[in-house]
Design brief:
The structure holds two protein chains of two kinds.
Chain A (H helix, E strand, L loop, with lengths): L1 H30 L5 H28 L3 H19 L19 H33 L1
Helix pairs in contact in A: 1-2, 1-4, 2-3
Chain B lengths: L2 H4 L2 H9 L4 H19 L2 H18 L2 H12 L4 H14 L4 H17 L3 H4 L13 H25 L5 H5 L3 H19 L3 H16 L1 H9 L2 H16 L3 H24 L19 H12 L5 H12 L1 H7 L11 H10 L2 H19 L4 H6 L5 H10 L6 H11 L8 H29 L5 H6 L1 E3 L21 H6 L6 E3 L4 E2 L2 H7 L4 E4 L10 E3 L18 E4 L2 E3 L6 E3 L6 E2 L4 E2 L6 H4 L2 E5 L13 E7 L2 H6 L1 H12 L10 E7 L3 E5 L8 E5 L15 E2 L4 H14 L10 H12 L4 E7 L34 H11 L2 E7 L7 H4 L1 H4 L5 E3 L9 H16 L3 E10 L3 E7 L3 E4 L2 E7 L5 E7 L8 E12 L4 E13 L2 H6 L3 H18 L2 H22 L9 E3 L5 H9 L12 H13 L2 H8 L2 E4 L8 E4 L2 E4 L3 E2 L11 E5 L3 E6 L5 H8 L20 H15 L6 E5 L6 H6 L12 H13 L1
Parallel strand pairs in B: 3-26, 5-11, 12-13, 12-17, 17-18, 18-19, 33-34
Antiparallel strand pairs in B: 1-27, 2-4, 4-24, 6-7, 7-8, 9-10, 11-26, 13-14, 13-16, 14-15, 20-23, 20-25, 21-24, 22-23, 25-26, 28-31, 28-32, 29-30, 32-33
Classes of the chains: A mainly alpha, B alpha+beta.
């Protein structure tokens, strides 16, 4: 059972890693003027909700399977994701707003955030991998 | 050739000149072709051809014409060249073109025929190719002389260091180099002679030159005669070295004047042919043509006198200056002074000489020149010419160069050529040294004392200047200062840029730019050139602040890359000279406009397309705006900017959307109603936007019928969203402008809004909510529109809350503009009605640019991180502007990413690429240059308080939307506290018990207080949400001048206007009453006061105001009889009335939207509006100015 949880987490984590990489690539494309803000933001906004869900699912899963340490590790990031999604002003077109992304260094902070998440997910990935192997051996 | 001869061929030539690719492309094509001819330009060939060029040019007389002529010289046979000329010509001097074109055209034709241009060029002569006609020959000889002179000048510069001895030989020009431009620049504004001057020179020449010229006159025209006459003058003057030099100088001056004129564009006074269509064309050619009449009479006294004046200035400067010293920093005033002081003798002598010299310039550089020329090193010149036709070395080039110049001689430009030449020579060192020596050196002695003088704010009560606050002048050397961009178009918050971000942080002042790029300009050099010279790595346009490393390379002033000077750029169209890239108009003007080639188009330039989306619900009909709009449209239908392709369409909406089929051929407009607002579609997509000219009658019918069509409507709903969607669909194939008139909250379909305002919260001191949009519908729509090059302009005429915060998004992100008329009613609120009428007039007729993009570049090390204004930021530094209008202002914030220690100057460049209403792709480029400083006190010395305040206002708007109003207010106060505290900590000798500000920032606290009391940011005073949001929108989109009036109105006492300290504007006497403090203490019951709030004038009349004033100015017998709602001043024939009206109209003329005048009596309800603007006074909710200062002081001490 435990191995199943971690296998799922691992897969989910992989997806999140890919998503982070995608965010980084898209944002850096915008930075380099390869794409315009409009298309960049519409691309990214599409994946904000999947990201929130994907991460929330793992977090809840860890809570359910009583892996406290991993749960607590995930909690702040999951909370931040949800908070960020909820706090989007009513007039904005999503977390990434094409009219504001070039202002006040938003692009840079988005980039930074994506980087941090990538690092976090990589950490989680190895943690899940280790836990999974451990669980499989135990089984 | 003679002008008459030239005329007939003109049209054909022009037509032929335009290649299929358009003018721009033709230029490019010409470039390669020109290369070869140029090479041949070397001494021998050039000599041969020059005459032709010379002859052809003479008719034109103007520098520009010279340009053209030169081209033929270079590539005599090349068709392409001809094209080049033609294209260049119209582009540059569009208005005058017709006049000037004739000769050009003819010459072009000639050019096509053969190399024997010169033969053709002097039309009167039937000379063979081998031997030019007599006139031509003579001119050639003159040319030769001039060439020698210039050559010598050149020689001194390059081969040898400039010595004082040179001066005697006519080298003085070199020395003048610096002084000259200054002088001319200084004089130019004051003196309107330029065209005349040119003419004057000619005229003088003629007069002086006597008979031969006359004879020529008879034969052909003045020009040809001049050329012929040249020999005489030559003979007379050549021997005298000194005289010649003088003449050259003076002529140079004249040329410069001419140049400046040419560059600056149209000369309104001389010729009234200013293009209203939005093409600011420079009209040098025209001026030339005007000159002709002067010259013909020969003795034209006025012309002569003008010439004299122009001549004078250069001469004195010449004498005063040592020849060398590129970095001479003589102040323009001084030079001017000297010029004025210069004796009449020099001037009198010089005009003739000038002519002479000019004539000289035009001739062949043949053997004659050697013999006759006084110039020291003629032999060298000759040898170089003979040996190397091509410009190999610099000197080698020169011959060609000189050759090129000859055509100009007759014209004032010729001297320009000479001067330019020397100019050039000096320029190298000058430019190179600029960064090192000139940059910040002058700072210490001039500006610092005054701008850094500590001001004790709590003690000095009268800190307002007498008249308007001037923009600080960057601390550059006078040359750069002259070249720098006008502060009206381009301002930086810190005119001394701190070296590092750390220093900037210490100063606690924001760093940013305030832009007004599309401002209506009276003078704008328009450049048509096949290659627009830009830096290859950062794409910066070449500008006055680049440095020429040598003749062939220039160094970008933004990224420091070394670029090649394209072959074509070596040729100067203004002076018709070759090899002086530094004299090109691009390098002489910080504001220029290029006609762009097809490289700058993604699609063919779009036509002007206007779509009006009109609210016709009950509310709208009741307000009665339709009548005003239709009336304005009918009046201005022919003045709408556009060409034959202009299209127009109308959509009306209430709960349904109505379209109007205006297809040509219909007997009357056809209304098509679409009631399916959830899925809007276009009933007949092809016939809704129709050609304005083909369907004009139908359009007029519709406009006449529209106001009465809906008079009995009972429909109260408003389906704005669907109407906008339909408008977008209609516009998306072409792009253009959508003008939306809305009178209430949209209540149906997509984009419907709900009232969010709680009236009880209007005067809340705590939280102001709903400053941001309620839905992203309008933002998305705006971005869609922006993507399709469509801008949405919003006119909101509502009496209740309409959620402007949401609606404004449609304009904000599509680069539209927003107009708001609170409680608009046609009959109940005549002031608003009048305002709408005036605004509409301006709105409909003002210039417009379509499918525009703007890029702001800055020197490496600086980076822009935030943009303010109405546009969409498409990529990091590219602003997408579907439309650009002359009333739009922009602001950007910058940070210093890399230390600027290795440079002493930084530059900023905005390039606005747009399609004019005539379907031309144009690029308007502004370049601003500022010094870099390393000390904190210098940073404060250069602070531009108005720009700082405007930038802070923009930032505060962002802050209040993204965070909260209270945050924004705190941030504003902190901005003052921090910067003053930082300043006081740097000046250790100050007493810390007092509140001290540097003189440059003495108005800072006052302006911030004014901002805090502005509608946008005030709390505690009842402010309707829409009013507040509108004020915020204006802060983001108004240019600095208008924004400052909004923030801090000007108050004048006008009941005792006197004729003292008046200024004269267009033959009107305008009194200049001093600015009053915005405080009730300044108001007296005995007086009448005018408050200029930018968009509205309040005329407050005290109870005991002098009855004479009321009678004369207001037209009523006494105070009691003045009506409550008075918006006009009657035309009474009394001096006080005249003064008042001329003063008010002078104020009005200075802004695009004519403000409405509101007369306010003591018991008038509008009185509160007036008194709210007295920002130095205490209100229940806000500090007085003094209290505010104390508060700041307290916070600083904390």
């Amino acid at each position: 059972m435990e191995s199943v949880v971690f296998i799922f987490s691992l897969i989910d984590c992989c997806a999140l890693i890919f998503l982070s990489v995608y965010f980084i690539i898209t944002l850096s494309d915008l930075e380099c003027d390869y794409i315009n803000a409009r298309s960049c933001c519409s691309k990214l906004n599409k994946w904000v909700v999947p990201e929130v869900i994907g991460h929330a699912v793992v977090t809840v899963l860890m809570l359910i399977s009583l892996h406290w340490f991993i749960f607590l590790l995930n909690l702040p990031v999951a909370t931040w994701n949800i908070y960020r999604y909820i706090m989007v002003p009513s007039g904005n077109m999503g977390v990434f707003d094409p009219t504001e992304i070039h202002n006040r260094g938003q692009l840079k902070s988005h980039m930074k955030e994506a980087m941090i998440k990538l690092g976090f997910h990589l950490l989680c990935f190895f943690m899940y991998l280790y836990s999974m192997i451990l669980a499989l051996i135990n089984d | 050739m003679s002008a008459p001869a030239g005329l007939p061929p003109r049209p054909a030539a022009a037509a032929a000149a335009f290649p299929p690719g358009g003018p721009g492309s033709s230029l490019e094509a010409a470039a390669p072709a020109s290369g070869a001819p140029r090479c041949q330009n070397g001494p021998m060939q050039s000599q041969m051809q020059f005459p032709s060029g010379y002859g052809s040019h003479l008719p034109n007389y103007s520098a520009p014409s010279g340009h053209y002529s030169q081209v033929p010289n270079k590539a005599a046979a090349s068709h392409l060249e001809n094209q080049y000329r033609a294209s260049y010509y119209p582009g540059y001097y569009s208005a005058p073109a017709p006049n000037a074109m004739a000769p050009v055209g003819s010459s072009m034709l000639n050019a096509q025929e053969s190399h024997q241009l010169y033969n053709n060029a002097p039309p009167h002569s039937g000379g063979s190719s081998d031997r030019p006609v007599q006139g031509a020959v003579s001119s050639a000889s003159y040319l030769h002389v001039s060439a020698q002179q210039s050559y010598s000048a050149f020689d001194n510069h390059y081969s040898t260091s400039v010595s004082s001895s040179v001066a005697s030989q006519g080298f003085p020009l070199n020395s003048d180099h610096y002084a000259m431009p200054v002088v001319s620049g200084a004089m130019y504004p004051n003196v309107s002679y330029p065209p005349v001057a040119a003419g004057g020179v000619y005229g003088q020449t003629f007069t002086s030159q006597s008979l031969p010229a006359v004879g020529q006159f008879k034969e052909t025209n003045a020009f040809s005669s001049q050329s012929t006459s040249v020999p005489h003058s030559l003979q007379q003057h050549v021997p005298v070295g000194y005289n010649t030099t003088l003449s050259t100088v003076s002529s140079a001056q004249a040329v410069q004047d001419n140049l400046s004129r040419n560059l600056t564009g149209s000369i309104p006074k001389v010729n009234n042919q200013i293009n209203t269509g939005g093409i600011d064309s420079s009209q040098p050619v025209h001026s030339v043509s005007q000159n002709v009449p002067f010259t013909k009479p020969g003795a034209g006294t006025s012309a002569a006198s003008a010439a004299m004046s122009s001549v004078r200035s250069p001469a004195p400067s010449l004498s005063s200056k040592p020849p060398s010293s590129p970095s001479v920093t003589q102040s323009p005033e001084l030079a001017l002074q000297e010029a004025l002081d210069s004796s009449s003798t020099t001037s009198s002598a010089s005009p003739v000489l000038n002519n002479y010299d000019a004539l000289e310039g035009g001739g062949y550089p043949e053997t004659r020149s050697v013999t006759s020329s006084p110039v020291p090193s003629p032999s060298v010149l000759q040898t170089s010419k003979a040996s190397k036709p091509f410009g190999y070395g610099y000197p080698a080039l020169q011959p060609g160069y000189q050759n090129a110049t000859p055509p100009t001689p007759v014209q004032p430009s010729n001297p320009g050529h000479h001067s330019g030449f020397q100019h050039y020579a000096q320029q190298y060192p000058g430019v190179n040294q600029l960064s090192s020596s000139l940059g910040g050196l002058s700072l210490q002695h001039s500006q610092q004392p005054e701008s850094l003088r500590p001001v004790n704010l709590t003690h000095d009560r009268n800190i307002l200047p007498v008249s308007s606050v001037p923009a600080p002048v960057p601390n550059l050397n006078s040359d750069l200062r002259k070249l720098n961009c006008s502060p009206d178009s381009f301002r930086c918050t810190l005119t001394n840029i701190p070296q590092t971000q750390a220093l900037l942080n210490k100063a606690k002042l924001p760093l940013g730019l305030l832009l007004h790029p599309f401002r209506d300009l009276t003078q704008l050099p328009v450049i048509t050139s096949s290659t627009i010279v830009r830096c290859r790595s950062c794409r910066t346009y070449i500008n006055p602040f680049v440095s020429f490393i040598d003749q062939r390379r220039w160094k970008c002033n933004l990224c420091y890359r070394v670029n090649d000077v394209p072959e074509e750029f070596m040729y100067n169209p203004l002076t018709r000279s070759y090899g002086e890239p530094h004299k090109r108009p691009e390098v002489q003007n910080s504001t220029v406009e290029f006609i762009a080639s097809s490289d700058y188009m993604l699609r063919p330039p779009q036509p002007a397309v206007y779509l009006f989306v009109l609210d016709v619900s009950h509310n709208a009909v009741e307000a009665g705006y339709l009548t005003i709009l239709c009336q304005s449209l009918l009046e201005n239908l022919d003045k709408l900017p556009g060409d034959s392709r202009t299209r127009i369409g109308f959509i009306t909406f209430d709960s349904t959307v109505q379209f109007y089929n205006l297809q040509e051929g219909l007997s009357q407009p056809q209304m098509l109603i679409v009631s399916d607002i959830d899925d809007i579609f276009l009933p007949t997509p092809d016939s809704l936007l129709v050609n304005l000219h083909e369907s004009k009658e139908l359009i007029k019918d519709l406009l006449n019928a529209l106001p009465n069509m809906f008079t009995n409507t009972r429909e109260t709903h408003s389906a704005l969203g669907p109407a906008l969607q339909a408008a977008f669909k209609l516009m998306s194939p072409t792009g253009g402008r959508i003008s939306v008139f809305q009178t209430q909250l949209p209540s149906l379909g997509a984009g419907l809004l709900h009232s969010r305002e709680d009236p009880n919260q209007r005067s809340s001191t705590k939280v102001v909510q709903h400053l941001g949009p309620a839905t992203d519908f309008y933002k998305k729509l705006a971005l869609d529109c922006s993507g399709q090059q469509t801008a949405v302009d919003l006119f909101l005429l509502s009496s209740q809350y309409s959620d402007l915060a949401s609606l404004a998004c449609m304009s904000k992100y599509s680069a539209g503009c927003i107009y708001y008329y609170p409680s608009f009613h046609r009959s109940h609120n005549p002031a608003q009605a009048e305002k709408l009428q005036k605004d509409l007039k301006r709105y409909l007729t003002r210039k417009i640019g379509f499918e525009a993009v703007m890029r702001i570049r800055c020197t490496k090390g600086l980076s822009i991180h935030t943009f303010h204004g109405n546009f969409f930021v498409r990529s990091t530094d590219l602003l997408s502007l579907a439309n650009v209008n002359p009333d739009a202002g922009f602001a950007v914030q910058m940070s210093i990413e890399e230390s600027l220690t290795d440079t002493s100057l930084v530059c900023f460049q905005t390039a606005l690429l747009y399609t004019s209403s005539k379907g031309e792709r144009r690029i308007r480029v502004h370049t601003l240059c500022l010094p870099v400083v390393s000390s904190l006190s210098d940073v404060y010395a250069g602070a531009d308080v108005q720009a700082v305040v405007c930038l802070l206002a923009n930032m505060a708007v962002d802050r209040s939307v993204s965070s909260s109003l209270a945050d924004a207010r705190d941030a504003l106060v902190n901005a003052v506290v921090d910067s003053l505290a930082a300043y006081m900590s740097t000046a250790s000798n100050l007493q810390h018990s007092m509140l001290i500000a540097p003189n440059s920032l003495k108005l800072f606290p006052l302006y911030i207080l004014a901002l805090l009391k502005q509608k946008a940011f005030r709390t505690g005073t009842s402010t309707r949400l829409d009013d507040r949001v509108y004020a915020m929108c204006q802060m983001k989109s108004q240019p600095l001048v208008h924004l400052m009036k909004m923030i801090h109105p000007n108050l004048y006492r006008i009941d005792k206007l006197t004729d003292e300290s008046t200024i004269h504007v267009n033959d009107r006497v305008v009194p200049q009453p001093p600015l009053q403090k915005l405080s009730a203490e300044k108001l007296t019951r005995e007086g009448a006061f005018l408050m200029d709030c930018g968009s509205i004038f309040y005329l407050w009349i005290g109870k005991n105001c002098d009855n004479n004033f009321i009678k004369d100015v207001l037209g009523y017998p006494n105070y009691a009889s003045v009506p409550q709602k008075m918006t006009q001043l009657p035309e009474v024939d009394a001096p006080s009335s005249e003064r008042t009206r001329s003063f008010i109209s002078w104020l009005r003329d200075s802004r695009p939207l004519s403000p409405v005048l509101q007369v306010i009596k003591d018991e008038n309800p509008a009185k509160t509006d007036f008194f709210q603007h007295l920002i130095e006074d205490r209100t229940e909710a806000a500090f007085s100015y003094y209290e505010f200062l104390l508060n700041i002081q307290q916070q600083i001490c904390k």
